[in-house]
Design goal:
three-stranded mixed beta sheet; alpha+beta; Helix Hairpins; 17 strands; 13 helices; eight-stranded mixed beta sheet; BirA Bifunctional Protein, domain 2
Length: 425
């Protein structure tokens, strides 16, 4: 959530900057609600002061044995008017809060302009796509040939956009998770974390998924609903909701493996083949909470942590800066890592690394204190996939395939596979 004081003082400038995200701020509505709030609040304060002053004068008159009935009569309607004002002010504040909750984060000055992913800016590439001397297969055909990946049986037991994996391919999927966790904990200084896979609505509001993206969530039918997490970002960042940490605890780095659940609303017809866009998938998520003046350095660092996994797996990839129109609701700036998929002959997203500045922290009141007695300040939050496990598996299958339909196991993963070098039909 944006700082209400900033909105009041720089409404026109904020509206201009939000256009980079393709968001049209209703300046007229926001201005009228804010003016109404200010008028009601001023009247409320004046009436409260008048009532308090009158009460003191009534007390003084009674103490002096004088008649206070005239003054009591003059102020008899103040309580009723104040009660009405309270309700009006609460209604206006609720309207303002609802409007503010739907305003996205302001893009950083370095975010390129553009309407969609076609305007994203490539920053760098790593690795060279392999030149195959045979016709490559995509991961769906490879999985079927191995007899270890089945989308039809998954559809039978659940529905579309699910998969069943077995044997060495299922083990490779698990090995990737363990490998990522080991690297991020042992080398990058993240604390491994286990969290619930169900969260409440406050948690989703805190990280920005609610109220705007309610249709993307899977929700239980219980009296008080829970939501299946769309990413570990939600529960891990919310560990610090309504909390004040000491400055010597910063930076906070957490890594968490979870399944993720998304309804993929609005993605009808997109990536219907294979594992690229599913309702259930695995991720190893990196989350950082830092001092405000450290968040941009932290973004570069976190992105590097995610890149290191791709480099160790020797998977060609590129880093792109998302343009305003492709930037997420809560993000001030995002780098996407896109891995090369021979089966599609294109780079596809495998990780998004974002700096949210104080946007999430303000929604969830996650703060830190510089010293004893100092006023708490809002943290800056960041996260990124390190990496999306299913898409990493897809990239390995397609980049490490052989002409006989087998898939070589990347060298760094072989210790997790009991030395297995190749997955064959």
């Amino acid at each position: 959530m944006l700082d209400p004081q900033l909105i009041r003082s720089q409404l026109g400038e904020i509206a201009k900057r939000l256009k980079i995200k393709g968001y049209q701020l209703d300046v007229e509505l926001l201005g009228s609600l804010e003016a109404r709030r200010k008028t009601l609040q001023t009247e409320q304060q004046e009436l409260q002061a008048k009532r308090n002053s009158s009460a003191k004068e009534v007390g003084r008159l009674k103490a002096a044995g004088q008649d206070a009935s005239e003054l009591i009569g003059q102020t008899a309607g103040l309580g009723e008017r104040l009660s009405k004002l309270d309700h009006e002010l609460e209604s206006v504040k609720n309207d303002l809060d609802a409007l503010l909750a739907g305003i996205p984060n302001i893009p950083h000055a370095s975010v390129p302009e553009g309407k969609d992913e076609n305007a994203n800016v490539e920053l760098r590439k790593w690795g060279t796509p392999r030149d195959f001397p045979f016709s490559v297969l995509d991961h769906v055909a490879l999985g079927a040939g191995l007899g270890m990946m089945d989308f039809e049986v998954a559809a039978k037991i659940t529905g579309s956009r699910f998969v069943v994996m077995s044997s060495a391919l299922a083990r490779l999927h698990r090995a990737l998770i363990q490998f990522m966790l080991d690297v991020h904990t042992a080398e990058h200084g993240y604390e491994e974390t286990y969290v619930p896979y169900l969260v409440n609505s406050d948690s989703l509001f805190g990280t920005g998924q609610l109220p705007k993206f309610a249709e993307d969530q899977f929700m239980t039918a219980t009296e008080t609903p829970f939501y299946l997490i769309p990413t570990a970002e939600v529960p891990v960042t919310n560990l610090y909701a309504q909390n004040v940490v000491n400055i010597d605890e910063l930076p906070i780095r957490r890594v968490c493996h979870t399944p993720c659940f998304r309804s993929e609303a609005g993605s009808y017809g997109k990536d219907t083949r294979g594992m690229i866009r599913q309702h259930q998938f695995e991720k190893v998520e990196l989350v950082q909470l830092v001092e405000p003046d450290q968040s941009w350095t932290a973004l570069e660092e976190l992105t590097g942590h995610a890149e290191s996994i791709l480099q160790r797996l020797e998977l060609p990839y590129r880093v792109v800066a998302l343009c305003g129109g492709d930037l997420g609701f809560s993000s001030a700036k995002t780098y996407d890592l896109e891995v090369w998929l021979p089966g599609q002959a294109k780079y596809r997203e495998i990780s998004s690394c974002s700096n949210f500045e104080a946007f999430q922290a303000r929604r969830m009141q996650a703060r830190f204190r510089r010293g004893q007695g100092d006023k708490p300040e809002l943290l800056h939050t960041l996260n990124g996939s390190g990496l999306a496990v299913g898409r990493t598996l897809v990239a390995i299958m397609e980049n490490y395939q052989d002409d006989n339909g087998s898939v070589a196991v990347p060298e760094v993963l072989r210790p997790y596979m009991k030395g297995l070098e190749k997955i064959a039909p």
